[in-house]
Specification:
The structure is a single chain. The protein contains 13 helices and 15 strands. The chain is globular. By secondary structure, the chain is an alpha+beta fold. Strand 13 and strand 14 form a beta hairpin.
Length: about 450
């Protein structure tokens, strides 16, 4: 019996050492992800704790978290085995923010001013229901089969698609939602928010307020090799700055999203590893740096907060959208934009129409070509904060297709040659979901 207890004791010790070495350092990130996800999903989209835990937080290690929602205080807390408790607060207009112990949650804060355009127009240029339109050139049986095939059958948890919408010539020709999700559900776009951030630069450039080809206005870089980095380099993710982006480990990206107070500083302080425009390296830190640069274009924080909505989001009727801020009041331009599937589709339509929204030109037509032109070193897969199909990543989709992409397979596909916008929101990446098959099925339904 003593021998058995000794073996059990040694086994327990080994497990504790293994846990301490492999998992304990990640606890801060695990509980941070869970608390932030819980607060955003519950207070922005009114999802239940159970629904969030079964879907949004159904990720390896994140499932270890124990979560609590405080309805009156508008905050959530999460911890792992009672360790490393993290807190995320919700503030109307700013969404949810993961905070540290030093953050004063009672301090007054500014919120963006929103403008809801009211008219009697149907989707996409108004908030009325879209008019039914039947196109003789579409095989609707094939189209609906392709869309339906993107979803799990009852009892499965493989494809994990939440929604698909297909828009042709400004008309919704297919739209489907998974149980628990509908046209009013706000869904996190993750890195699709990067494309929103980039678009604001296109708008400022059209307004003559910014030149993306000039060096980035960052005083800390003026006396070293980083002085040559332009906004254009940052938009193309080829600044040459050091950055590690891996979500299965502690790295620059995870430390920024789940620990940093001011996310705009995370990339700014990194040294140069390569000369600008010679080495492509995907970096969420770069997108948040761009958000920080945008903030400095305005005299006040209020003007910065308002600009995102007045110049773009509310301008095209993405009225459901909420872009969340960090503790320092910066929009998290890399990752934290929420909107309904229909509103994400409006963003795609803006690019399909080369910046023209119902007669108003928000950015120059050349900007749509700019973001869809391959950047050096990306093998035709990346442009300026948009993903491309120029290199044939999706072999059965048109090569002129470009897209806003996000974690877990959020996609806004823009296909100019087909006059198509396709949105898929879900909980699976490319490796587990047949995006090429979905695109092929939709495109092949046209004759």
């Amino acid at each position: 019996m003593k021998k058995i207890f000794k073996i059990l004791g040694v086994t327990l010790l080994v497990l504790l050492v293994y846990f301490g070495y492999t998992t304990y350092p990640k606890l801060d990130l695990i509980s941070g992800f869970s608390a932030k996800s819980m607060a955003s999903g519950h207070f922005i989209d009114h999802r239940s704790q159970e629904l969030i835990e079964k879907n949004d937080n159904d990720i390896e290690l994140i499932t270890l978290s124990k979560n609590k929602i405080d309805e009156n205080g508008k905050f959530t807390t999460s911890s792992v085995y009672g360790l490393k408790e993290r807190k995320a607060i919700y503030r109307e207009g700013l969404g949810a923010t993961l905070i540290n112990d030093d953050f004063d949650a009672l301090k007054p804060y500014e919120v963006p001013k929103r403008t809801i355009i009211k008219n009697n127009l149907p989707f996409p240029y108004g908030n009325n229901e879209p008019k039914d339109t039947v196109f003789a050139t579409i095989d609707y049986t094939k189209l609906n089969a392709a869309v339906s095939n993107a979803f799990d059958v009852k009892g499965e948890k493989l494809k994990r698609t939440r929604s698909v919408i297909v828009i042709y010539k400004d008309k919704i020709i297919a739209e489907k939602y998974a149980p628990g999700i509908d046209k009013n559900s706000k869904i996190l776009g993750w890195s699709m928010t990067k494309s929103i951030t980039a678009t604001l630069y296109g708008i400022l450039q059209k307004q003559g307020k910014l030149d993306i080809n000039k060096p980035a206005p960052i005083p800390e870089w003026e006396k070293d090799e980083r002085a040559k980095i332009t906004i254009n380099d940052l938009l193309h993710m080829n600044s040459g700055l050091e950055w590690e982006e891996k979500y299965d480990k502690i790295c620059d990206a995870t430390q920024m999203l789940f620990q940093a107070e001011d996310m705009s500083q995370s990339q700014l302080v990194k040294p140069a590893q390569f000369k600008p425009n010679t080495h492509w390296n995907y970096s969420s830190g770069t997108s948040n740096l761009l958000s920080g640069i945008l903030r400095k274009q305005f005299k006040t924080h209020q003007e910065y907060l308002d600009f995102w909505y007045a110049a773009l989001i509310d301008k095209i009727g993405m009225n459901s959208m909420v872009v969340e801020t960090d503790m320092a009041g910066n929009y998290v331009g890399s990752s934290y934009g929420w909107a309904t599937t229909r509103d994400w589709a409006k963003f795609g339509l803006l690019y399909l129409h080369k910046g023209n929204w119902n007669g108003e030109q928000l950015f120059d037509e050349s900007w749509a070509k700019y973001v869809a032109t391959p950047t050096v070193g990306s093998k035709g897969d990346y442009g300026a904060h948009f993903w491309l199909n120029a290199g044939g990543h999706y072999p059965n989709a048109p090569r002129d297709m470009f897209s806003a992409n996000g974690f877990q397979g959020q996609k806004v596909f823009i296909i100019p040659s087909q006059d198509l916008v396709i949105v898929r929101m879900g909980l699976t990446e490319d490796a587990k979901f047949d995006f090429d098959g979905l695109l092929k099925g939709i495109v092949d339904s046209f004759h």
